[in-house]
Amino acid sequence: MADLENEITELITRIAMRQRQRISAVGDGFDLGGLTPHQARIVGFIEANEANDLIARDISDVTGARAASVSALLAGLEADGWVERRTDPSDSRRKTLHVTPKARDLVKHFEAGVRAQGRVRLSTLTPEEGEQLKMLLTKVDQALTD
């Protein structure tokens, strides 16, 4: 059984690596609107988390970057019209981060490209095999979360 577990683990790892490579290729050919890949990731992170009252400190915590570096990065993104800092109504000292409509459009288009490229190709499977694979992978996924 250990050999089978190793083989399946290796297969899943290989599939995941190939999927990451395909998704990464989308980013390589995508127009980031003048942003560097790092800036684009930060804009995407802000867009995904802005409902959680994201602040600059949160970006420092996640990236491990110094607060001054994050502040400079955000100042540039703000000056170029990608993000806004808004005063928190409950604490005037706190500035929450939000993306502009221009940034939201960029993220939406990028995500659509990633989704289109990132779909697992199951054309070699019959519909029944696809359902069976889904059931088995779901079972493995649930076992890993327990």
UniProtKB/TrEMBL annotation:
Residues 5-142 form the HTH marR-type domain. One of its GO terms (biological process) is response to stress. GO terms for molecular function: DNA binding; DNA-binding transcription factor activity. It comes from the Bacteria. PROSITE patterns: HTH_MARR_2. Keywords: DNA-binding. SMART domains: HTH_MARR. InterPro entries: HTH_MarR-typ (IPR000835), MarR/SlyA-like (IPR039422), WH-like_DNA-bd_sf (IPR036388), WH_DNA-bd_sf (IPR036390). This is DNA-binding MarR family transcriptional regulator. It comes from Propionicimonas paludicola.
